Amino acid sequence: MTKWWKNAVIYQIYPKSFFDSDGNGWGDLDGITSKLDYLHSLGVDALWLSPIYESPQVDNGYDISDYRRIDSRFGTMDDMQRLIDGAHERGIRAIMDLVVNHTSDEHDWFRRSRQSRDNPYSDYYLWRDPRPDGGPPNNWGSHFGGSAWEYCADRDQYYLHYYASKQPDLNWENPQVRSEIYDLMRFWMDRGVDGWRMDVIAQISKYIDFPDYPPQEGKEFIIGPMHYYGPRLHEFLREMHQEVLSKYDCVAIGEAPASTPEIARLLTDPERAELDMIFTFEHIELDRVPNSVNRKWDLRPMEVRELKQVLSKWQYILADRGWNALYFENHDRARIVSRWGNDTLYRKQCANAFATVLHGMQGTPFVYQGEEIGMVNAHYELSDYQDIDIKNAYRAYVHDAGTISEERFTKAVWQVGRDNARTPMQWDASKNAGFTSSWPWLKVNPRYVDINVAEALADRDSVFAYYQRLIALRHQEPILIEGSYELLLEDDPVLFVYERAWQGQRWLVIVNLSDREQSAEQVRPLLYDRWRAVIANYPEPLAQSQLRPYEACIVARMDDDEGAHGDSPANR
Ligand code: NOJ
Questions:
Q1: Ligand 1 midpoint to CA 60 (Å)
Q2: Res. 572: pLDDT tops 60
Q3: What does the alpha-carbon distance between residue 566 and residue 556 come to, in Å, rounded to a whole number?
Q4: At 500, is the secondary structure helix, strand, or coil?
Q5: pLDDT digits (tens, 9 = 90+) for 545-571
Q6: Is residue 163 in contact with ligand 1, taking CB distance under 6 Å?
Q7: 378 CA to middle of ligand 1, Å?
Q8: Would the pLDDT of 495 be above 60?
Q9: CA-nearest residue, atom 5 of ligand 1
Q10: Whole-angstrom Cα distance, residue 71 to residue 76?
Q11: What is the rounded CA–CA span in Å between residue 486 and residue 502?
Q12: Among residues 427, 462, 428, 432, which one has the least CA distance to residue 445?
């Protein structure tokens, strides 16, 4: 039987920025509940909520101090139950974020662990002695800049933190830690939660002898392959599956930085009983200068040819085993129209074009809040950003190391900074975009006046309307779920064209990923004798000799017995 999540489109909510129901400047659970009808009208099957647990909010909730409590700024346990039930009443499932590579340093486990080398919690985290010179145990770097180790005088030891120093990494080698995690998963699933998005799950198993990386010029601390896919990862995941996941009708989506499709096959092969799908980073980091000392802040233009090659590779390799999680945006990734497209003249066409590329593929598509109305990046002063990643990187690369100028760094933040996706959701053209009646925790993007939900709902040609149709197609057309995939026009620098085929049906997905007209000459020979447009973001698709800027469509081959009522020029 097909698993429910194979036909599903999943909508990600960043609760802090979604809708503020009580006027404190933060989005909250009641705010989400009040928008369930909106989400239902979009047609999505499940919601993934970024963390809403009790947290000091150093990394917006990815630093959890109590897994069984709701942060009071988001609401109460009753509010959460109402949200889960309200979603279920509308046939929408609820997925939570499972952040168990690390906790907050304010979690009770860590408070106890740091007290001594010999208490029941001492081994809940990864502690190591200083080097003889007192320095950190090895040269590993943190993803948020600096060393991955923090000294703690009480134990005269360092603890490992792959992210902020206030996010100590849990010690998965300790069976007690694993059993605590499985318990908290059951706690939520027994309340109706339908699955998990697992934060940096690829990092939970560590190379516990912690060898140094070979030195690299210009880098004091290094992030490399030993940060990921430790030796016991698959074993831990299988155990989690057996202990928890197998007991529920749920979905398990792993966040898997540095993954390859081969790794994805291992993680998502149903026979291995680990995860259902993973988020890869390969396609979404194509605009990064590889191995730069300035990490993600050193940018280069994204090449459509490379994007096609990477996305297609994942389609091919996971075709018969495993499953793809399809995404361009999330709370860590900037708005795709601004980052790789056109967010002015062709904003709507461009949003629809990227959506067509993604939703035409095999896998489970994810829509990140605001993506469905074509929200765009914000160009703020550096001091207006709140993200710990931006702040720490500024200190590490601009201020301390001086390896990137403030001007270049600011431009990179405008392009890829995480806060671009975290600006409050734009509901209408009223003050603060209708997000809050008080001061929003992060500035509202000034373009809300034109780009907002109310505007989109009033416009039959809106990005929202296009998403509605794409999502409905996924529910109606098994070819999108089951069909084979073949990339066409592989070498074309801007046209993204592929074919899906299933049980005699054939569909072409045709997208011009550029803001210029492109000759349709190469596309013509690929067209079927008789075809009809399934969806298109311009009127009269393929009727002219040119593909218009960001023109996108899906066309289906018409069977002989189908009436000649399509858009095909052959029918005219
Ligand atoms: C990945 C999350 O998506 C990101 O927002 C967070 O900062 C890190 N993991 C650490 O939890």
A1: 9
A2: no
A3: 10
A4: strand
A5: 999 999 999 999 998 667 544 444 443
A6: yes
A7: 20
A8: yes
A9: 332
A10: 7
A11: 12
A12: 432
pLDDT tens for each residue of 178-194: 999 999 999 999 999 99
Contact 388 CB / ligand 1 (< 6 Å): no
- Return residue ranges of the chain for CATH 2.60.40.1180: 482-557
Give catalytic status of residue 515 as yes or no.
no
Q: Hey, whose CA ends up nearest to atom 8 of ligand 1? A: 62
pLDDT tier, 2 (very low <50, low <70, confident <90, very high otherwise): confident
Q: How confident is the model at residue 1 (pLDDT cuts 50, 70, 90)?
A: low
pLDDT in tens, 262-285: 999 999 999 999 999 999 999 999
Residue 88: is its pLDDT beyond 80?
A: yes
**Ligand 1 near 59 CB (within 6 A):** yes
120 contact partners, CB below 8 Å, separation of at least 6: 112
Long-range contacts, stretch 118-126, CB < 8 angstroms, 24+ apart: 123/171, 123/173, 123/174, 123/176, 124/170, 124/171, 124/174, 124/176, 124/177, 125/159, 125/160, 125/168, 125/169, 125/170, 125/171, 126/159, 126/160, 126/168, 126/169, 126/170, 126/171, 126/206, 126/208
**Cα gap 490→312, rounded to integer Å:** 10
Q: Which of 30, 71, 105, 199 is catalytic?
A: 199
Atom of ligand 1 at shortest range from CA of 330: 3
User: End-to-end CA distance of the chain, in Å?
Assistant: 42
In the chain, residues under CATH classification 3.20.20.80 are: 9-101+180-208+251-465
Distance (Å, rounded) from C-alpha 42 to C-alpha 464? 7
Ligand 1, atom 11: closest residue by C-alpha: 62
Counting atoms of ligand 1 from 1, which one is nearest the CA of 101?
A: 11
Please write down the HEC assignment for all residues of 440-489: CCCCCCHHHHCCCHHHHHCCCCCHHHHHHHHHHHHHHCHHHHHCEEEEEC
Q: Give distance in angstroms: CA of 199 to centre of ligand 1.
A: 6
- pLDDT score of 351: 99
User: Which of these CATH numbers, 3.20.20.80, 3.30.1490.20, 3.40.50.300, 3.40.50.880, describes 9-101+180-208+251-465?
Assistant: 3.20.20.80
Catalytic residue among 20, 255, 343, 551: 255
Atom of ligand 1 nearest to the CA of 59: 7
Amino acid 564: pLDDT = 47
The token pair at 146 is: 């600096």
| pLDDT tens digits along 101-146 | 999 999 999 999 999 999 999 999 999 999 999 999 999 999 998 9
277: part of which helix (H) or strand (E)?
Answer: strand 277-279
Write down the CATH superfamily of domain 482-557.
Answer: Golgi alpha-mannosidase II (2.60.40.1180)
Average pLDDT, the chain: 96
Q: Is 255 a catalytic residue?
A: yes
Amino acid sitting at position 332: D
